[in-house]
Amino acid sequence: MLRVSNLSLTKGKAILKDLSFEVKPGEMLTVLGPSGAGKSSLLRCLNRLDPADSGEVFLNGAEVRSLDILDLRRRMGMVFQTPALIPETVAANVALGPSLRHETVSEPEIQELLQQVGLPPELMTRQVETLSVGEQQRVSFAQVLANKPDVLLLDEPTSALDPTAALTIENLIKDVHSRLHTATVLVTHDIPQAVRFNTETLVLVCGSVLARGNIQDLVNDTGNTTLQKFLKGELTGQGPEQI
Question: Could you report the per-residue pLDDT of 83-133, keeping only the tens digit for each?
């Protein structure tokens, strides 16, 4: 579904360094690392919000630079750290993606999408600014799901939420991922959250892969001293001198 080959990005300094990985349909990859490790930049390169300097990204065998940008972002849906919504009704936000392609989402379809993300259908006429941040983030998920994506890119989607709302979104992610059989890339700096998802995990430090494997195995990998420094909160990811 998603294949990344030798991806690198520089913005005055090296942000990503020669990253390669694959995510198959139905698989979830957690990208874990300290702030400044390049996690969000990686997601932005995957759907061409940022142009990579070198390397390739393939979606179902097609290099993403060969795809129409609207089609790419439909198929590779991204949920950001804070809800990226337009100042309109919930219904208008959910239908935004299809409307850009001159497609219509019916009222019953919008209600079904809201139910999928745990929101009552009667919210569809509400202005999004009247909702809580947690509700707005669920609208963001419904907005992405309206595009019927092949891949979900989740950029620390619970970082702006309180613990209760964060757990609600975590459960929503697990449900959507399982039900739709998407390939999912979840970015987080929250180690307990990564453990709760219990997936294949890529640990980034200074734009490079420090470790990869199931998160439970990584937590128990006492032989990797740099990884253990990160897990203990002793690594910030700001400079190679820490490694």
Answer: 889 999 999 999 999 998 889 999 999 999 999 998 999 999 999 999 999
> By the 8 A CB rule, do 25 and 181 touch?
yes
**Residue with the two structure tokens 């990579």:** 52
Question: Does a structural domain hold residue 122?
Answer: no
Tell me, yes or no, whether 90 lies in a domain: no
3-state secondary structure 162-229: CHHHHHHHHHHHHHHHHHHCCEEEEEECCHHHHHHHCCEEEEEECCEEEEEEEHHHHHCCCCCHHHHH
Largest distance between two CA atoms of the chain: 56
**Domain count for the chain:** 1
Does any domain span residue 120? no
Residue 136 lies in a domain: no
**Whose structure tokens read 């910030």?**
236
Neighbours of 88 (CB within 10 A): 13
Query: 160-215: per-residue pLDDT in tens?
Result: 888 988 898 899 899 888 888 889 999 998 999 999 999 999 999 989 999 999 99
pTM reported for the whole predicted model: 0.89
**Domain hosting residue 63, numbered range:** 2-81+149-205+219-237
